[in-house]
Amino acid sequence: MNTAVQTWVKTADTMEWSPMPDHVSLFHREIVSAAEADALRVRASSVLWEKIGVGGAVLPHFHNVAEIIHITAGKVRLLCNGEWKSYQAGDTFLVPAGVVHSVANDDASPTEQISIFLPVEEDAPRNRFFETIRVPVPTERPLTEGNG
Predict the structure, then answer these.
(1) Which of 39, 57, 81, 83 has CB atoms 3.0–4.6 Å from 104's, for a disulfide?
(2) pLDDT per position as a tens digit, 116-135
(3) CA angle, 126 as apex, 103 and 117 as ends, to 5°?
């Protein structure tokens, strides 16, 4: 374990919504930048919190990275394998690098999603589920089930 690394927090009020002009009524907040992923020593191009306004869309496109899109609010239509299909909050899309996709707001209010962009590497090591090691809580009032 690397004890020199500390946890840092980016609060929502410090992340401004930035327009993405190549799309229609699409805004994002960068949750994790490539530089921050480097500081964490993980491979990620970016993690975005995206908002699509009413009538807006992430227009059809593809990337040189894989993308995981998790819908967190509202109803959307996804261009999936050449067909438009309807989805809702809680649904997740796994988009391989090079695959054309699009997400359009299909709701009466803005929709939101988390988009995770991950590098694709031919010789990447195999993934595995992570380990969790419990330690004593260094607080005056330890957290227990039921109080958070």
Answers:
(1) 57
(2) 999 999 988 888 898 999 98
(3) 25
